[in-house]
Amino acid sequence: MGMSVTISAATAQDAEHILKLQYLCYQNEAELYGDYSIEPLTQTLDGLKAELDSGHGLVARLGDEVVASVRGSVDATGTARIAKLIVHPRLRHHGLGGRLLDAIESHFAGEPAAQRFQLFTGHRSEGNLRLYRSRGYAPVSTQQLGPRLSLVTLEKPAATAAYMASA
User: Fold this and answer.
1) Predicted pLDDT at 113
2) How many domains, the chain?
3) Fewer CB within 10 Å: N-end or C-end of the chain?
4) Which structural domain range is residue 42 located in?
């Protein structure tokens, strides 16, 4: 491609680009589970902006194009909940998802420091599960949301993330 991907904090001006990319990226998930009413496909622009305002988001850019994103927030118990890790389909399988996951963990390892990292994915989303396990996440619960979808919650201690980032 000739250009390198840069990762930076998401801004309100990125929200529309993130929402369009999110819609594109979650088509495969919707097809996999036979459900096009999943929250990432029905989220509004105002809802996404509110998420960015209440937490932290990152975008990856190839030139001026937003090609990947992740967001999350830390709750009162010290759990950093990471959500909506998305990578443009043409850039998947090049390590960009892992780079974004590392970057958001590093952000939440700052002040106030997260005690643990938590995320979730569908039980059939093998690529997501493989990525998360390779980054030290382990399943902690499964929630049946419907006849075709169970959400698997994965977690790891924040100390593991700090160790892995320094290795």
Assistant:
1) 81
2) 1
3) C
4) 5-166
